[in-house]
Fold this protein.
Amino acid sequence: MTAKTLDLPKKSWLGLPALAIGLIFVALVTVYGWLFLHAESEMEVLALLVAAAIGVVAGTRSGATRNVSVAMNQHSGIMNAAIIGGVLVVIGLLSQEHFSLLMLTSVLLYLTAALGLNVQFGYTGMVNFAGAAFFGIGAYTAAVMTMHTGVPPLLILLCGGVAAALIGFVLVLPVVRTRGHYSAVVTIAFAVLFKTFLEVNDVLGGPQGLTVGSMSILGWDFNSSPTLFGVEMSFYVNYALLGTVLAAVAFMFTRRLERSWLGLTLDSVRLDETASACFGIGVTRAKILAFTFGNVLAGTAGALYGMMISFIAPTSFTFSDSLLLVAIVLLGGMGNPWGTAVAAAIVVVLPEKLQIIQEYRFLLFSVLVIVMLLFRPDGLLPRQIRTYIPGWRKQP
Amino acid sequence: MDIGLLGQYLANGIMLGTMYALVAVGFTLFFGVLDVIKFSHGDVLMLGAFTGFTVYLGMAGIGIENPWVLVVFVTLSAVIGTAFIGAVIARYLVLPLKSAPPLNILLITLMLGTAIREAVRLFFPDGSNPKPFPSLLPSSSVELGNFSLRADSAILVGVGLAVIVGLHLLINRTRLGLAIRAVAQDEETAKTMGINYTMIVLVTFAIGSGAAAFAGTMNGLYYNEINFGMGLLLGLIGFSAAIIGGLGNLYGAILGGFLFAGLQTVGAVALPFASAYKDVFAFAVVIALMAWKPTGLIAERTSDRV
Amino acid sequence: MSGRLLEITQLSKRFGGVTALDQFEMTVNRGEILGLIGPNGSGKTTSFNVVTGIYAPSQGKILFDGQDITGFTPQQVYKAGVARTFQRSRLCLPLSILDNIMIGNYGRLSKGLWFNLINRRAFQAEFEEGFDQAQALIRTFSASLADRMFEPVGSLPMIERRRIEICRALISRPKLLLLDEPSAGMTHDETKQLMDDILDVRSRIADLSVVIIEHEMGVIERITDRCIVLNYGRKICEGTYGQISTDPEVQQAYLGAE
């Protein structure tokens, strides 16, 4: 695992300032995302994949990607706003396409959950192979609470996160007391236990699953289609917008966590527990913090996911799904939230777009991760050195 | 409770215990020589069972019907084929990552397990459905009151125990076993003593995987059914058994296997109304066990030099 | 402020049947540099590990600055004012120089969730202060390192890593610094430079006591005020370098019985 420092590029690209290149990049990705989600034939999808490959090579060769990194680092406020703007533009362009919006929102919710896992094992080195189980806890919490209580759905979203955290606390003792392989066993056992339990338990619907009530904010039901300027849009627009908010908040907190003393503590615990303890670092406290933080994100995302698809069953939260979340973190690059975002998009959208690989997705991604671990263990976007305050330079 | 029923539970427990012990031995061997946990072990076991099943289909297809010939060939081909696969995995996936963070080996073997599972599900004809494994052993039984001892169970347990004893003798009484133990003790010293380190690691992985394939075939012959997901459960149980006994300790693994089978049987006896929760119970026990003794009942020696 | 800072009495540590420390006695006076020497496996590093709480002692008592720290956890020992380096440099290689030094300052950093995640203005103030401190400290060792605070430690040569490790231990302003074979893996010239650095630091920080484990006798002669010699987990000799180097028992321990 090597981290690279961020040097200023010697020459800016085409004489443009880094920020301009960054904004052009966001615009291009926005258009690309729209085209990709919109693409219908498999030929279109393949053409777009080829275009992406060419784009990546061209960007790297010409040094444009370096400028993008610089822009992200030095103008993080503007860049982040532009990226959120880009997502909103895509939602607007796809506002009448149910399926594309469902996919986009799924990406955002998987991203949220994967960011949680990223904190757990990208930063802290605590493997969690029950990510889908914590996601599922959120979804089942949403199902029970929307159907049997009058709690406002927005609050139920939080309850999903809290429920995941609480059940996580039951696991915390064995997870914190064990290291590496052993704690992996604890979470694997929990992942399998969770799915088996759901299947044999009648109260939670057994193998048939449960119906989940819809999201609503201030009386606005998310399952009704919004109308803007007389054009009726897909009801998924609601979920896509809320998903954007959720992912953005999760992203912001993950980033801030990394760029803080707490993030430093988590890294230190991952890299050397004994030395950490010798400098007064509370190893247990750090692990509990990371485990809980991650589970809250997974649970909250799961709750919204349940509300969006309005019907959940144990088969959506299997051990293989947990591994898929792990694959997202690994493919993207451990500890790099942008990598997680890219990988979430690939892992969620690609199988849906290329129907031939849909059935093979678990196989495909597990082989991909194996290849990755052998030949590029840092992932697609390797993590960079910590900059506590983006764009900060010591005043001379 | 009457004696017959008790005997039935006992016989069942011994059968499960033998199977678990065979799986646990693999985990403990791998951990011994390389300090790694190979999470694909359970799926390798499943692959062994499917290999045996394929060989059976092939042989039945060309008209061989003698069950004894079949059972010998099925078992041998499963064990040998899987042993080979185990060595290949060690050579190309585990050894290259030896100096990488330990997390990476864990991840790569987990992903490999998924890949094997999915490959069987997708590429074995009608692989997503359970396959009827043939009952090749005589199923006549001896009745003792309520208790009926079936011949096939007796044979399976007998051969299984013989394999365990054989493994024990192999590790403790042969030159090969000596080399394996030397590598487990200290890799560097073993190398300077002229032991072919890579070869010993590969052989160890082959032995462990072969034992798992044997357990897989045993499982098939006993339950007359195999499916692509069977390895996940058996692998987890085998691993837990290895941990109960303390990783890296052969006796521990055997003890752990029987202990875990005992726990499951007691669970089934004590909670007859909740037999559906059998696996939930088993995994809850695993988790509780890890909370109580994080590195097993016989604590693992710490290797963290300061 | 003179007198004894650390007093170890009758300290034993057994691992199974092996006795790594056997009734070990050691006293460190305030402001002195004490050398801890002995053949390999004589229990030097074990004594550090017991003092810093990594291992619980089987027997004996450790008094530090008037406080009984026997059986403390590593965290508690650190809070009491003991910092150390490790024989095999245990820096976090993928992290930056700044990160590694800040880990040593953990006790002074704000750890609240609100502070770290929400109140970024306050965080930035504390960050800038911490950065200045860390930079100023590393500058006393090497000006070039001070200009590369955001570079990963993994890309640096051994001597620079040792310097960073010592800075990581010093930034918390400990009363006692334990150095476990700082010259390991370095050339003769590098070792000399590092010892100059250590003497320099000692001259700046009044009242800092140092215990150093070292194999190079030249180093011991040059920088220590006093030495303790260990063999088979026992103290066999104590005194200035001149005294111990002529002691017959010490010579026997090093050269074998003749």
About this structure: The domain at 24-127+134-304 of chain B is CATH 1.10.3470 (ABC transporter involved in vitamin B12 uptake, BtuC). The mean pLDDT of chain B is 84. The CA atoms of residues 43 and 116 of chain B lie 6 Å apart. Chain B has eleven helices and four strands.
